[in-house]
Amino acid sequence: MWYKGQKIAVWGDQNKANGHFGAEEKSRSAIAGKFEDIPIIDISGIHSSDINERMRVAGQIRDACVRVGFFYAKGHGVPQDIIDKTFEWAEQFFALPFEDKMELFINNQGNYRGYTPLYGSGKPDVDGLANANEAFDWGLDSKLNDDAGYDCMDPFMQGHNVWPRQLPGFEDHLSAYFGALRSLGRVLARNIALSLGLPEDLFDDYLTHPGCSAVVAHYPPLESGSTKLGLDPHTDNEFLTLLAPGKVRALEVLNRDGQWISAPPIDGTFIVNVGDQLQRLTNNLYISTKHRVINHTGEERISVPFFFSANWEAVIDPLPELVGKDTKIESNNVTAGQMYKHTMLALHMPADANPTFKKYLKA
Ligand SMILES: O=C(O)CCC(=O)C(=O)O
Ligand SMILES: [Fe+2]
């Protein structure tokens, strides 16, 4: 495919960075109490004008990204109030009648924004039902774009967000949340560059209009003994994920021994993880670690992942600085937008075959 005179390669699962560790443990029970294996980092120094402060954080981030691919970020600077309000709006959205939510059915939007019904994404089980979560996705569009020089015409990602007409105020708040997290992502990316021993502005050109997206997700409690998953094991596609995990423990992270480690929420922190883009850019130095969601707590769970991505047209190849002098870079010229589109198509395909959802598909 061609875009602005540039040939874009075909992207597929075989190209996913997929840096999970070890063989996948089949057990459905996670090891609790080992969450200290996921480091807690006070990242407040990323905003400091003192390079020593920034370097101190960068060292810890490097260690976490090389060993684990995940860390808890405290001192992130996003006001708790804006995070709490996002959860309140999410609750109001999920409380809407099913028919209202299906007005925004994600499979009807060319840019994969809007509503994913319960069991409507992921890999279908023997009962034909897939992930036990419902979700609302929004992300960069021409309204949320803050780069005057960008036309939002990526060949893979075009169109606007859709918003629930029943909830005035929802769009404004989620847009503000998007802006706050995008700002944090840009500062974090500078610290990541530092953590790689590279100039702090290294990623700036990748992030002039980052193709970020975000999700409010609802994971109802699963019955004990249920074989269902809230979210299948996967790696995230983007540069970094900044997850507001809410109050209910359900996220599990695959460690080097192939064991699932529980990653419970810790007040005042985001759970940050390396995505496939960053793994690829760092030539597999930083690891995009597999994770999944299982809610066996008996409580309703809401979480809000923010996927911080490079510009959609940015080609995601290993940085020459991180590739040995004699190693040839195998460029396949894949863009961030293409990686995102591919991931979203694969994730949402099952709903097209499900009779409950099929009738909502628009021709
Ligand atoms: O809700 C969570 O804990 C994680 C969600 C997640 O992994 C994702 O949406 O990619
Ligand atoms: Fe994820």
UniProtKB/TrEMBL annotation:
One of its GO terms (molecular function) is metal ion binding. SUPFAM superfamilies: Clavaminate synthase-like. Residues 208-310 form the Fe2OG dioxygenase domain. Keywords: Iron, Metal-binding, Oxidoreductase. This is Fe2OG dioxygenase domain-containing protein. Belongs to the iron/ascorbate-dependent oxidoreductase family. InterPro entries: DIOX_N (IPR026992), IPNS-like_FE2OG_OXY (IPR044861), IPNS-like_sf (IPR027443), Oxoglu/Fe-dep_dioxygenase_dom (IPR005123). GO terms for biological process: small molecule biosynthetic process.
